[in-house]
Write a structure and sequence with these properties.
There is one protein chain. The chain is 43% helix and 18% strand. It is an alpha/beta fold. It has a single domain, classed as STAS domain (Transcription Regulator spoIIAA, 2-Layer Sandwich), CATH 3.30.750. The protein has a five-stranded mixed β-sheet with strand order 1-2-3-4-5. Helix 2 runs parallel beside helix 3.
């Protein structure tokens, strides 16, 4: 029953300027999202069901984005399976020259990510206060990338 409930309340959504329900600094509405950058909104607890949904969502991309932003503002909790999913994604992206940015990380997930050493491996510069800051970081990463890796 718990597994089914977690699956129901956890959502992974690709966010674009046309479909973003958020406003203000969390929103990509009326913002230029650079080519090669994708934004996902993760909602609800980031447990096993959410980790599986995230992997499925990322598999839908025909090509590897240059930068992926995970908006975690509405993720109140994360467990070891969520951490493991993020670690696998971080490792895969690093191998392919892609960057992972996390925005709006709440206290419990941040504590888990920090204590597990994930924050250090990802780099604290890749934790952003909100989507606006994450988009600016993404622009800088793309602009400073070596020419052969630019999208």
């Amino acid at each position: 029953m718990f597994v089914r409930r977690m699956e129901e309340i956890s959502q992974i959504k690709l966010v674009t300027p046309d479909n973003d329900p958020d406003a203000g600094r969390e929103s990509v509405r009326d913002r230029a999202v650079p080519d090669g950058v994708v934004v996902y909104r993760i909602e609800g607890p980031f447990f096993f069901a959410a980790a599986e949904k995230l992997e499925a969502a990322l598999a839908r991309h025909a090509t590897m984005p240059r930068v992926v932003i995970f908006r975690l503002r509405t993720v109140p909790a994360m467990d070891a399976t969520g951490l493991r999913a993020l670690e696998l994604i971080r490792h895969k992206f690093a191998q392919k020259g892609a960057n992972l940015l996390l925005s709006g990380v709440q206290p419990q997930p941040m504590k888990l990510l920090y204590n597990a050493g994930f924050a250090e491996r990802l780099g604290l510069d890749n934790f952003c206060a909100n989507t606006e800051v994450a988009l600016e970081r993404a622009r800088r990463l793309i602009e400073t990338a070596p020419p052969e890796t630019r999208v």
